[in-house]
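Late entry, evening session. Most of the bench is empty. Finally got around to the prediction I had been postponing all week. Sequence below, unchanged from the version circulated by S.P.
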Amino acid sequence: MTLVFRGRVPQALDPKGRITVPRRFRDVLAEFNSGSAVVVVSDVQSLKVYPAEAWERLVDMKMRERSPFDQSARAFGVLFFTDAPTTEMDGAGRILLQPAERQKAGLTRDVLLIAGAMECFEVWDRARFEEYERQEQHKLPDLMRQFAAGQGS
């Protein structure tokens, strides 16, 4: 059975900008061969952490859908896919989040690891996520109906 990332875990960045990956998230990462992770600034609110193999599969799938002559696909690839450093977990189960990544995502010391995307988990500034959740919680019943009906955004 394939494990997936699930749940939310409060963490604190250490002085070097590392987070400790919780055991249940490490178990999912261990299912992939390399044990490496790719950290992506997904938007201005969070970072996404993918197992390296899942990231490569996503990039390959998405870029192959587009024509090599599609300028917007090329620009997206250059701006998004190339700004995705690979990081290794250390012996204590920590991964380093680079200063530029932390700054782009607005991360402070107190963060929250959110796992709702199956093949990756997100790192949010804790206060920012709490505000996001307060503002968006009212949408949950409609989102659940859309999800159940197989509709996307």
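Two things to note before I forget:
Helices lie at 23-30, 52-64, 71-81, 99-104, 126-136, 140-148.
The chain has a mean pLDDT of 84.
Will write this up properly tomorrow.
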